[in-house]
Design a protein that fits this description.
This protein is 48% helix and 15% strand. By secondary structure, it is an alpha/beta fold. It is globular and about 45 Å long. The structure holds D-ribose. D-ribose (RB5) binds next to α3.
């Protein structure tokens, strides 16, 4: 189950992604903001992060204008590894190396076509499971 969340700037891109999920039969829960109202990106980062923490969802996608604020907010949550990706190389690498469980994107940065490729790459790449990466990931939770 994929959690998806967006602030007001990310509504259109979120729709592109959920339409794609509907078409492909990919299950998701939408924690995002409605288009019209100005909204606060930390609310949606927290809703998506909580759904992963409580195992309601396995992975998340979060969208704000830049992807920066919403990824900062998500990365403050225990067990959440949010990666801001605007290219497929990063989306693949962060799954392989960081076992990122949340993909963040900026709706003002990336177009819908590339965003969908990034989503496909992120969701379609498994963690490598390499010991060195597991060690580094466990170090992320030390402080
Ligand atoms: C909203 O204007 C904008 O600040 C927000 O979507 C995001 O880009 C913050 O990082």
């Amino acid at each position: 189950m994929i959690a998806i969340g967006n602030d007001h700037t990310g509504y259109e891109l979120k729709k592109v992604i959920t339409d794609y999920f509907d078409e492909k039969g990919i299950e998701y829960k939408d924690f995002g903001s409605a288009k019209v109202d100005a909204s606060d990106y930390p609310d949606f980062a927290k809703a998506v992060g909580r759904s992963i923490q409580n195992k309601e969802c396995d992975k998340g996608i979060i969208i704000c204008g830049t992807g920066i604020g919403i990824s900062i907010a998500a990365n403050k949550m225990k067990g959440i590894r949010a990666a801001l990706c605007h290219d497929c190389f990063s989306a693949e690498a962060t799954r392989l190396h960081n076992d990122a469980n949340v993909l963040a994107m900026g709706a003002r940065v990336v177009g819908p076509g590339l965003a969908l490729k990034i989503v496909e790459t992120f969701l379609g790449t498994d963690f490598s499971g390499a010991e060195r990466h597991m060690k580094r990931i466990s170090m992320l939770e030390e402080d």
